[in-house]
Amino acid sequence: MADHRSIDVGGIRLAYQVSGPPDAPPLLLLHALGENSTDWEPLVPAFAQHWRVYFPDLRGHGRSEWPGTYSLELMRDDVLGFLDALGLDQVDVIGHSMGGVAAYLLAEDHAQRVRRLVLEDVPAPLPRQVTSPIRPDGELTFDWEAVPALRRQLDTPDPRWLERLSGITAETLVVAGGPSSHVDQEGVGELARRIPRGRLVTIPAGHMVHAAEPVKFTRAVLSFLRPEGEGPS
């Protein structure tokens, strides 16, 4: 059973869940745009056997504050502030889609804070066709204002993000969702090639790999994060 908590990070209240032994090594899970911490709940029991698992609602999502100001750099800074506020010096990180972008930006700028990195169907920071997202009807569990703001950056990313992938020191597993994903799979492969210690695995399940194929995803991640004779006990 996960505990629901909240913490102030740079003036923004972030809600988060935590599960696993308090003395276990920390693992951070970062959700995609439009999702929240509950997206990870089915997988957490497997990870909580070996880690202290932290899974926040990023700004504008779920129970966290919806400040109306959004950028991928702010997401990165929120994650860094979250680690600082909880006294987590170095963590393993799993990031899905937008959460993976925040994760690799963190690993680019603060390499010493990321021990190992898993990027699940994360777009490479390469220009892509600009589209206009349409707001779904009804009440949302996230701030719609985050969508156009973050999509603009994903469509036309800062060129430095691509250049600085070569500075990521964390051993990195890039999980591709295969041909049914809307994310350009050549770009996902490019992401793995640009990271010096990156490796690529494809689980043909579409963009929501961890939800569509939870057993295969968990097995791949555990074999990466806990190779025989290494990792948390």
Let me know the number of strands: 8
Termini separation: 20 Å
Shape-level CATH architecture = 3-Layer(aba) Sandwich
Give the CA-based shape. globular
Uncertain residue segments: 229-233
| CATH H-level homologous superfamily name | Alpha/Beta hydrolase fold, catalytic domain
**Number of DSSP helices?**
8
- For the largest beta sheet, what order do the strands appear in spatially? 1-2-4-3-5-6-7-8
Share of helix among residues? 25-40%
CATH topological fold name: Rossmann fold
Instruction: Outline the biggest β-sheet.
Output: 8 strands, mixed
Total domains: 1
Q: State Rg.
A: 16 Å
> From the helix content, strand content and strand pairing, which structural class follows?
alpha/beta
Into which percentage range does the β-strand content fall?
A: 15-25%
State the order of secondary-structure elements, H for helix, E for strand.
EEEHEHEHEHHEHEHH
Topology:
Elements: E1 3-9, E2 12-19, E3 26-30, H1 44-48, E4 52-56, H2 72-86, E5 91-96, H3 98-109, E6 114-120, H4 146-155, H5 159-163, E7 171-176, H6 185-194, E8 198-202, H7 209-212, H8 214-225
Name the descriptors.
233 residues; alpha/beta; Rossmann fold; eight-stranded mixed sheet; 31% helix; globular; disordered C terminus
Describe this structure in words.
Mean pLDDT is 96; it is low at 229-233. Strand 3 (26-30), helix 1 (44-48) and strand 4 (52-56) form a beta-alpha-beta unit. This protein has eight helices and eight strands; from the N terminus they run E-E-E-H-E-H-E-H-E-H-H-E-H-E-H-H. It starts with a strand and ends in an 8-residue tail after the last helix. Strands 1-2-4-3-5-6-7-8 form an eight-stranded mixed sheet, sandwiched between helices. Helix 2 crosses helix 3 (98-109). The protein is of the alpha/beta class. The protein has one domain (3-225): 3-Layer(aba) Sandwich (Rossmann fold), CATH 3.40.50. It has helices spanning 44-48, 72-86, 98-109, 146-155, 159-163, 185-194, 209-212, 214-225, and strands spanning 3-9, 12-19, 26-30, 52-56, 91-96, 114-120, 171-176, 198-202.
